[in-house]
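As the next step, I selected for study one protein, both as residues and as discrete backbone shape codes, as given directly below:
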Amino acid sequence: MGLPFHQHLFPPAKKLVWEYDMIRDGDKIAVGVSGGKDSLVTLYTLAQLRQMIPVSYSLQAITVDMGWPGADWSPVAGYCRSLGIPFTLVPSQLAEIIFDIRQETNPCSLCAKMRHGLLNSSAIEAGCNVVALGHTSDDAIETVFLNMFYAGRIACFKPVSYLDRTGLRLIRPMLYISEKTTSRVAGKLQLPVTANPCPANGSSKRQAIKDMLDKQMQSDKLAANRLLAAVKGLWKSQSLL
């Protein structure tokens, strides 16, 4: 039998939090909740860590509604209530702007920037000083390859970043945790995962990188660990610049 699913979740999350001084006494953390498995597991993890680490902090869940017709966020709102975490829904027309008005052929980068801008401004309005995103180890590895293939550079987002314009601290507490683990946890806990209606979902450049890496990892079970070790080395080198 394998380890209980929590053993793949809390120990690596706590390790990352301590290594990068992610969470500090008095922090009010806005968790970006897209409705996907990664963001919901991030919210769950941070809620549970309050009982596991000697740091006092509060949480605020924030969802940016892209404006897709028929979106129902009541299950996510209900889940937040079950955790005792305030939930804020931020309405927007990003879907119309990106796909109908601008008709972006490569929409992912612009979409991420606009969503994060709304998330950050909403976090400030809610009195938060920290924003947490649900990027996993898979996301970090894929980002390195995306930058190499499409930008001609070796780079990756960091576990902790400081946003000078807003004064926010941006944290990614799931970077030592795989997407396989978030999928397993979401299934075990029956989290209210919301399907992504974006027409670019499954056909983006990131998806192409993901498919390429999946093939390698199927034939080499240690590939993910080695790639994450390489990403950790990149974080260390970036911190020295």
In short: Strands lie at 27-32, 57-65, 87-91, 130-132, 160-163, 168-171. The mean pLDDT is 91. The longest helix spans residues 108-125. The first strand starts at residue 27 and ends at 32.
